[in-house]
Amino acid sequence: MSAFKDMVAADISIFMNLDENADLHTVSTINQANVRTDREISVIIDSYDMDGKPAKTSEGVSAHTTIIYVGAKELWFTPVVDQSLFLDFNRYTIIDASPEAEIWRLTLKRNGMRP
User: Does the predicted model carry a pTM greater than 0.85?
Assistant: First the structure.
């Protein structure tokens, strides 16, 4: 591994530090065998949506977008678009999943009220 990659890897623990940026949240998934896995992991919630307001979709139903960051080593699955994910027991759909230097940036969508 290059010196730069080593420095970035060392900085991830600082970025995901529970005393600074991250908080513990329950993240849950359901696998193909319909088995649910709940884990409490460090998560940074960046925003609930881009402008702070829910987007109206139809007939008064709102869609909320949440962007979260999770350390790649804390995830027990590989996130994929259209996968369901539960954040603090609220169901979301992953609409974008990007690995960024050992941290997953997940964009989640949820219909209804803001959590």
Answer: no
